[in-house]
Design goal:
There is one protein chain. By secondary structure, the chain is mainly beta. It folds into six domains: about 90 residues, Immunoglobulin-like, CATH 2.60.40.10; about 60 residues, no CATH class; about 60 residues, Sandwich (Immunoglobulin-like), CATH 2.60.40.1120; about 60 residues, Immunoglobulin-like, CATH 2.60.40.10; about 80 residues, Immunoglobulin-like; about 50 residues. The protein has one helix and 40 strands. Strands 39-38-37-36-40 form a five-stranded antiparallel β-sheet, with no helix packed on it. The longest helix is centred in the first third of the chain and has 18 residues. The protein is rod-shaped and about 205 Å long. The N terminus is likely disordered.
Length: about 450
């Protein structure tokens, strides 16, 4: 296009020369920027722009002229200017548009922020088309965990420019593992993932915290230099478990892994997580054992209902009224059952399984001592017939002068007319009261 305009202007000059016309002297003043831009009229260099001073092009003939203004790193301007007798002086202001380059910025790793003169342009990979050609531009590349990097870029035209930059770590890398795995890793209180995981540690060091449900937190102070790689492995310790043991009935002996813990109910506040054996013992009840799995930091309650293994002894005495003792301890007295001569049943409850000593006592009778073997949940029936112990306890003198009568007093009623003595085992003698002179109690 520029070449065609120059040819047209040259043709106009040739025509004027052939016709013999005398051209009229005219002037074109060109002002504008950038300073130093070159001014061409009809293809001929006529001067440069100088600030506020005009570049005057004279003499010029009347007619249309091609104005061309160019400057380094700017888009050139081409325009027609018409001069005639009515407009022999023309002023033209120009403002050349700066040419902007094309630069593609890549970083390893990607994601770096690119700034120029304090203004953020975007993140890599980034195509920049806003920087003017000519001056050298300083680009600053920044990425968390990496050292900042400055890159100088200069462009002369629109030819695309590619810059690939490798960033240097501004921190170390800790390869974090835990046993068991899955622990959350915090860097100075900020979560960075779950193990196994790589965590970027700033130069100078930081505090790594490993956290997992049911386990105690583990803290590690790590000092690292830029670019350093280091493994950080921790073993998590489970938080103590809480174990409560309840029995029915209570006051049972509680043993955990062969260690006595007390009488139920029992609460163990700091039990070790894992597998344990609980054993419950109570006299008269079947012992119980159970395996329990305690989790880290868990709260477990184990309930036991004990099964009674106590027996029972049912005692019937002939005659009634006998006092009964079990293993030296009085347990009751048998009561008469009508006129049968036998007693009602005296029940001795909660008798531990095993052998026991039963003693039956009734005044006037020989004591009865028995060994009784009672099984778990067994009812042992124990009929006891007492043998009379004939011991004279009363002497009676009569008024007839006969020898005193000795025997065991069978019946002595104050208002009764007779007194009955057992003079020999099974032989009774009745004495009228009006014949009695004296009664002597032989027990005194």
């Amino acid at each position: 296009m520029k070449g065609m305009l120059w040819k047209c202007a040259l043709l106009a000059g040739v025509v004027a020369a052939l016709t013999g016309a005398k051209p009229m002297s005219m002037r074109l003043d060109v002002t504008g920027r950038p300073e130093g831009a070159k001014v061409y009229v009809d293809g001929t260099f006529r001067g440069t722009l100088r600030g506020d001073s005009a570049c005057s092009v004279t003499p010029l003939d009347a007619g249309r002229h091609l104005l061309h203004v160019e400057a380094p790193f700017c888009r050139p301007l081409d325009a027609y200017v018409r001069l005639d007798e009515a407009n022999s002086f023309v002023s033209k202001a120009v403002d050349l548009e700066p040419m902007r380059g094309i630069v593609l910025v890549k970083t390893k790793p990607a994601g770096a922020t690119v700034t120029c003169r304090g203004s953020a342009l975007g993140a890599t990979p980034l195509l920049i088309t806003s920087l003017p050609c000519g001056p050298v531009h300083t680009l600053e590349l920044s990425l968390n965990g990496y050292q900042k990097k400055r890159v100088e870029v200069g462009m002369t035209d629109r030819t695309p420019l590619v810059r690939e930059e490798s960033l240097v770590l501004d921190s170390g890398i800790a390869y974090c593992t835990s046993e068991p795995a899955g622990a959350t890793v915090l860097l100075n209180g900020i979560e960075r993932g779950t193990t196994p995981v790589e965590v970027m540690v700033p130069r100078g060091g930081a505090v790594l915290t490993f956290r997992l449900d049911g386990y105690q937190d583990v803290e590690q102070s790590v000092g690292m230099s830029a670019g350093e790689r280091r493994p950080v492995a921790v073993k998590m310790e489970g938080r103590p478990a809480r174990l409560s043991i309840v029995t029915e009935p209570d006051k049972a002996k509680v043993v955990l892994d062969d260690s006595y813990q007390g009488l139920s109910p029992v609460t163990i506040k700091s039990a070790t997580p894992g597998e344990h054996v609980i054993r419950i013992e109570l006299s008269g009840y079947a012992p119980v054992s159970r395996m329990v799995q305690l989790t880290n930091g868990g709260d477990t309650t184990e309930r036991f209902t004990l099964e009674s293994v106590l027996g029972r002894i049912e005692v019937v005495t002939s005659p009634a009224g006998a006092k009964v003792s079990l293993d030296g301890k009085a347990v009751g007295t048998t009561r008469p059952q009508g006129d049968s001569g036998k007693s009602e049943v005296l029940m001795i409850e909660n008798v531990p399984a095993g052998e026991h000593a039963v003693l039956v006592h009734l005044d006037g009778y020989f004591d009865k001592s028995l060994k009784v073997n009672v099984g778990a949940k067994e009812t042992k029936q124990l009929p006891v017939t007492l043998k009379r112990n004939f011991t004279p306890d009363t002497e009676v003198e009569t008024i007839n002068g006969a020898e005193p009568v000795r025997g065991a007093l069978v019946e002595d009623k104050t208002n009764a007319e007779e007194l009955v003595l057992e003079v020999r085992p099974g032989v009774e003698r009745t004495i009228r009261r009006d014949t009695i002179r004296k009664i002597t109690n032989l027990k005194k």
